[in-house]
């Protein structure tokens, strides 16, 4: 067997095994998207209710003077929560998030703010550490399956720093929003000082007048951190679903490319084999002719 | 008589929704009973409380609710719990075990706030399951 033929066989074998791996990754990611979407769906009622409750308190208290809703006059530092994935193999998923985070950092620096990164996900952590950036908070190990406890943990760290005298004055979140299986967009949002996303006005006019147990201020104290936790939980869930969707797409195109490559190599291999056979035949025919000529010369 | 529309939700899932005649929950100011036509209320619930939903002929729905809020408006009652568990879903053996462990660590260290919280939660789960604590 010719050397070229052996080489091609070997390459086909290796591409085939790569295709098997990427195909398996694709199938795993597809099945996990469904679960991630279900988790997003399951979180919707709580989010709706808590947004409603926050709007109710804010619409009932004439002057809201809660530390979490008041913007400082001279903000000096901004915290940026960057949500990335733990594992790669997800196409441009992490690169997109990190690019937006850099753009946001640029904007904030222009406004004269010092930026403190808080990073979720191993990919974002290594990215920051490789560049020698100081990290103010780091979490990893749950990017593909976040639980509410993780969101609580992150929100707690951010709110604590926000309340400190020389802590952060603004909190922004850079994460990926899940629009559909095919579309995921990077979302940049400010979560503190709080801008409550108003629930759609109820059909029967403005919010009713609420009684509070205990006082409105104390209810707000308890409610706002929960609201922020729920916003962060939502960001984590969407990021997880987007990660699986991005991975599925990346792995699908990798599998397609591998199959195409196998086709190309197979054709080249067939050509090489055919060339070898043709050459052998012409050698045999040439040899036979030479023998026949020699025999004819003797006679 | 009008009915209450009740929803018990936690951040990770919707635990129960349905109609009811009366809802009894424990806020930080004390127990509160909600019947149809109640004025709008927004209350903070205690850690380790038991929620009781009366449904007329059907048996009461009982759930252990850990922290969170109750919001009432226009016969809609929503219970936003940080964590909640229906009485029928409680693993009694595990809850008893958790209660005993928490009580042991309280005896060892009176200042152990985590253990106190844990004990309260376990007790609420057992009460929700209909056990005597």
From TrEMBL, chain A:
Similarity field: Belongs to the ATPase gamma chain family.
Record-linked Pfam families: ATP-synt
Parts of the chain that traverse the membrane: none
Keywords: ATP synthesis, Cell membrane, CF(1), Hydrogen ion transport, Ion transport, Membrane, Transport
Record bears the keyword Transmembrane helix: no
Membrane topology term: Peripheral membrane protein
Function field: Produces ATP from ADP in the presence of a proton gradient across the membrane. The gamma chain is believed to be important in regulating ATPase activity and the flow of protons through the CF(0) complex.
Protein name listed in UniProt: ATP synthase gamma chain
Subunit structure: F-type ATPases have 2 components, CF(1) - the catalytic core - and CF(0) - the membrane proton channel. CF(1) has five subunits: alpha(3), beta(3), gamma(1), delta(1), epsilon(1). CF(0) has three main subunits: a, b and c.
HAMAP family xrefs: ATP_synth_gamma_bact
Record CDD domains: F1-ATPase_gamma
Keyword rRNA-binding attributed: no
Domain of life: Bacteria
Subcellular compartments: Cell membrane; Membrane
From TrEMBL, chain B:
Record's keyword annotation contains Transport: yes
Chain ranges of the ATP synthase F1 complex delta/epsilon subunit N-terminal domain: 4-84
Function of the molecule: Produces ATP from ADP in the presence of a proton gradient across the membrane.
Name of protein: ATP synthase epsilon chain
Domain of life: Bacteria
Gene: atpC
InterPro entries, per the entry: ATP_synth_F1_dsu/esu, ATP_synth_F1_dsu/esu_N, ATPsynth_dsu/esu_N
Main location: membrane
Pfam families referenced in this protein's UniProt entry, alphabetically: ATP-synt_DE_N (PF02823)
Membrane topology (UniProt): Peripheral membrane protein
Family statement drawn from the similarity comment of this UniProt entry: Belongs to the ATPase epsilon chain family.
């Amino acid at each position: 067997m010719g050397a070229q033929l052996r080489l091609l066989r070997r390459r086909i074998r290796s591409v085939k095994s790569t295709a098997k791996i990427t195909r398996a990754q694709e199938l795993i990611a597809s099945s996990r998207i469904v679960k991630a979407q279900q988790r997003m769906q399951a979180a919707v009622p709580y989010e709706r209710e808590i947004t409603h409750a926050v709007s109710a308190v804010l619409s009932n208290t004439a002057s809201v003077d809660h530390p979490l809703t008041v913007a400082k006059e001279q903000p000096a530092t901004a915290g940026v929560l960057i949500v990335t994935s733990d594992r790669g193999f997800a196409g441009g998923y992490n690169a997109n998030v990190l690019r937006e985070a850099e753009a946001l950092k640029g904007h904030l620096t222009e406004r004269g703010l010092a930026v403190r990164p808080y990073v979720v996900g191993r990919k974002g952590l290594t990215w920051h550490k490789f560049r020698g950036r100081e990290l103010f908070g780091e979490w990893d190990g749950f990017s593909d399956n976040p639980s509410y406890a993780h969101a609580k943990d992150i929100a707690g760290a951010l709110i604590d720093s926000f309340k400190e005298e020389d802590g952060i004055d603004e909190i922004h979140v850079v994460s990926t929003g899940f629009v559909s299986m095919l579309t995921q967009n990077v979302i940049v949002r400010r979560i503190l000082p709080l801008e409550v996303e108003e629930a759609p006005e109820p059909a029967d006019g403005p919010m009713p007048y609420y009684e509070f147990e205990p006082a409105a201020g104390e209810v707000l104290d308890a409610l706002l951190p929960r609201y922020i936790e729920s916003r962060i939980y939502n960001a984590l869930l969407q990021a997880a679903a987007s990660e699986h969707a991005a991975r599925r797409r990346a792995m699908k195109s990798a599998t397609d490319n591998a199959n195409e490559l196998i086709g190309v190599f197979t054709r080249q291999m067939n050509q090489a084999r055919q060339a070898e056979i043709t050459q052998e035949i012409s050698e045999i025919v040439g040899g036979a002719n030479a023998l026949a000529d020699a025999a004819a010369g003797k006679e | 008589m009008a009915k209450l529309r009740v929803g018990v939700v936690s951040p990770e899932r919707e635990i129960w929704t349905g109609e009811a005649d009366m809802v009894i929950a424990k806020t930080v100011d004390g127990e509160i009973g909600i019947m149809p036509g109640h004025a709008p209320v927004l209350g903070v619930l205690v850690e380790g409380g038991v929620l009781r939903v009366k449904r007329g002929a059907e048996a009461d729905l009982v759930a252990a609710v850990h922290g969170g809020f109750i919001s009432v408006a226009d016969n809609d009652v929503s219970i936003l719990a940080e964590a909640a568990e229906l009485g029928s879903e409680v693993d009694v053996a595990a809850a008893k075990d958790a209660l005993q462990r928490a009580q042991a660590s309280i005896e060892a260290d009176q200042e152990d706030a985590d253990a106190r919280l844990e004990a309260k939660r376990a007790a609420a789960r057992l009460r929700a399951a209909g056990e005597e604590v």
